[in-house]
Amino acid sequence: MFEGLFQPLHLVVVLTVVLIIFGPGKLPELGHALGKTLREFREAMAKIGESPDGSSSTPKAIERQEVARCTSCGATNLPNNSFCGSCGRAIAVASAPAAHDASGGEAGVS
Q1: Residue 81 CB coordination number (10 Å)
Q2: Does the model's pTM come out above 0.90?
Q3: How far is 34 from 25, CA to CA, in rounded Å?
Q4: DSSP state of 86
Q5: Would you kindly state where each structural domain of the chain is located, as residue ranges?
Q6: Would you say 106 and 99 are in contact if contact means Cβ atoms under 8 Å apart?
Q7: Model pLDDT for residues 81-98, shown as the tens digit of each residue
């Protein structure tokens, strides 16, 4: 649906329409406002992990918690996650042994 959206001719048409609407005098102001907005956004994104005193906002309980590694991609995940946050595959529970039924096979396997 959106393939070929940013072809050079399309960009020229969009820039021409913007020039007609805002005029050549307003374009530098518009660019300055857009640059300032992007700069403030980047600064705010960089500050997300910080607390007001400058230290990391990650609670100590989470930092000490053991992590589970995904067997597919090797990404670290919290132990209570069922799926890998990186690749989305199910994380196998390594600490729980497989349950066996009376016949000696795995329970629930046909």
Answers
A1: 14
A2: no
A3: 15
A4: T
A5: 8-46, 63-95
A6: yes
A7: 888 888 888 886 554 444
